[in-house]
Every structure is written in C-alpha cells, then in structure tokens.
C-alpha cells in the first residue's frame, strides 16, 4: 500500500481531518521562512494529537544558520522537542545541511533514546543529483523533492515537480518518499513512473498557503491509494 504524508499542517483541525481521510503521516514545519511554519510548541502538541489518532508525525526543520554544529540553537531546540514528545516519528531535515553537521545531528538524535528517525530531504533536478545522497548515508529515509527556485529562502513547499523517470530502478537501500509538485491529478502517474512506495504533498492540497482543502486532501489520498 502506498503511504501518504500530508505536510505543512497548521491547526489541530487540519491534523484530525487529514488523518480521518486516511493520511499515514502528517508533517509540521518549524522553518520560520515557510508560509506553513508553526511554533515548536504547536509542532509538539500536534504530534501528540496525530500519534493518538494513529498517524506518524514528522517535524520538518533545518539545522539553522549556525551550520548545525552540536551546540547550535536549532539543533538543541529539535533535540529538546524530541525528548519532550517521543511520539515524533521523524525529523525531516529540509535545509542545506552539509554531511558533517548532518551526521553529527544523527548521532545526537540517537542519544535521546527515542525511536525518532532521521529523514534527509534532497533536491533533485537530474539523475546526477541522486549520487549526492551517498553523502547522507546516515539517513533512515530519503525524501526526494524538486530543487528550489534560484534565490529561494527555503528548500521546499514550492509545488514544483521534477522528471520522475530518472527514479526508475532507483534503490538507495533504504526507504524513500517522493515529493514535489504532486496533486490528485498527477500522483498516480508519479507513482507509476517513479516506482515510489510513499508520497508527500503540501501545496498540492491547499486552497491558500498553509490552508489545506479537505476535498483536495481526500482526492489526493484516494488517487495515491488507487495507484498502489
């Protein structure tokens, strides 16, 4: 069965609706520049709610301008959040983390004693970009998204797709999720072409940035499940 993540949820009502409609995973963005950003406190609260309703909560973050060193404020905030809310299923790093800071964070996350996984979101424009994933082999899961537009102040949530055909036969030896420009109208084709077993959507099910549309969420989940 295709696993579906609805990302960029900003209210408890949206969380409940997405899960009622069949979302396996829900995502909460704590990147301040995102139009879907929520506070760390709300991210934790929503994560507990999602877990109680049977879905896996993911926190979407970046390691911050400090470069992600062990003492960076962004790192410490994320570790405290996971310790306070062990229900969090994954931290999805969607910034421009270098491999060194990324693996340092992986080590510190493991030190929390939780089962929270580490996801590395990676921008893809052509087949050559897939080779760079080897630098982040400490990730538990990869999320493949379209590269952001030039000059963008964040890494994701632009509703852009990439050529799914470059993923045919892609096998990184760990789970991976397809993201970027997905909608109810194209997700079945995206799954068929790429071979993805899990998908992620945010802007493709919205009526305005940060505001999910229930009908679009329902249609997306039904289309993804039908493709599977």
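-> sequence recovered:
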């Amino acid at each position: 069965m295709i696993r579906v993540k609805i990302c960029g949820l900003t209210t408890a009502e949206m969380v409940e609706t997405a899960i009622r409609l069949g979302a396996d995973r829900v995502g909460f963005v704590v990147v301040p520049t995102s139009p879907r950003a929520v506070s760390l406190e709300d991210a934790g609260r929503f994560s507990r709610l999602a877990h109680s309703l049977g879905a896996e909560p993911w926190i979407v973050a970046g390691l911050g301008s400090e470069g992600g060193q062990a003492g960076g404020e962004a790192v410490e905030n994320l570790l405290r959040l996971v310790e306070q809310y062990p229900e969090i299923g994954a931290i999805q790093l969607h910034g421009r983390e270098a491999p060194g800071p990324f693996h340092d964070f992986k080590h510190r996350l493991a030190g929390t004693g939780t089962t929270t996984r580490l996801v590395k979101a990676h921008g893809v424009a052509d087949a050559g970009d897939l080779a760079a994933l080897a630098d982040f082999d400490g990730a538990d899961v990869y999320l493949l998204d379209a590269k952001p537009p030039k000059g963008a102040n964040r890494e994701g949530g632009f509703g852009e797709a990439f050529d799914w055909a470059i993923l045919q036969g892609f096998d990184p030896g760990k789970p991976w999720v397809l993201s970027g420009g997905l909608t109810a109208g194209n997700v079945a084709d995206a799954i068929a072409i790429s071979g993805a077993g899990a998908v992620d959507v945010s802007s493709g099910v919205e009526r305005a940035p940060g505001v999910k549309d229930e009908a679009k969420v329902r249609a997306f989940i039904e289309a993804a499940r039908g493709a599977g």
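The helical segments are 12-20, 40-52, 73-84, 99-110, 128-131, 187-194, 214-227.
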